[in-house]
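One-letter codes give the sequence; each number marks local geometry. A record appears below:


***
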Amino acid sequence: MYPSEPAVPATPEGVGLTALLVAQARALESGRPDRLFDDSLATDFVVAAGPAYSAIAARIDDRLTFQRACVAIRTRFFDDCLLDAASAGCRQVVVLGAGLDARAFRLAWPSGLRLFELDQADVVDFKEQVLSSRAARPTCERRVVRADLREEWPAALVAAGFRANEPTAWLAEGLLMYLTEGERNRLLHCIGRLSTSGSRLALDHRGPAAAEPQAAPGRSSRGAGEAGGEHRQQDGESPVALLGIRMHVGETDRSLTDPTEWLADHGWRATVYPAAECFVRYGRPVPAALAASGVRLWLATAARA
């Protein structure tokens, strides 16, 4: 009898596809000699997704330069935020909409830290199969929660062992733009209910397509040099729009236009950084697509007020 081939995990669909786009960006960053982080599992996730994902990625590859640059910066920014929170005494970390995040495996966590990952079942199932096949071992106590953040998720988190009376570091990376304004407010409300004094929050948000200047429909986005080509890489639609994934952003949304006050309303004392400032912090050139409108894409760290 021949040994059976390992099962090929089903590739996530819908918003779950964005987790693979992020993993691919992290894999590419990890291969740079001047990399901002090293995520070896990112390549494993992309390879495991196989031809089905490769075909999808190939359709939009020329539109991903800006997004990949942003993923690299925000990944390092949030690495620093979470490790700083852990150093300050947070021994619980909750990664909301975790996708294919590998921080439980690649960061040097202090002893006794518990890290919770929340995401939809199809993304979690894909991730767990890949991790199992690689015999990946976390550097902390890792707990996985299958939950939809648009529904009632706090009970599932508590059932997994979360303790609301302990300081917690929360991460909402690349998440808010896929929630409606009402869903974003409910998410912050739920996080606040579960956060005691000493808790931290790290998150980002992005504005409408004006943050990435668009080329006229049907016109080529290539051929004007690296900076110019990047500036005009859009061809009427963003990559996620071409995948049929909707982002919920608007000019009057306070979580976008006034994030400091929006977070204060939910009980968080925040410091908000335009993305362009973060590029400079980590020694990377500010993408031309961002230079004129950095405030439309922000990252923030906050403490429980």
Q: What stands out?
A: The domain at 16-209+239-304 is CATH 3.40.50.150 (Rossmann fold). Residues 219 and 271 are 39 Å apart (CA to CA).
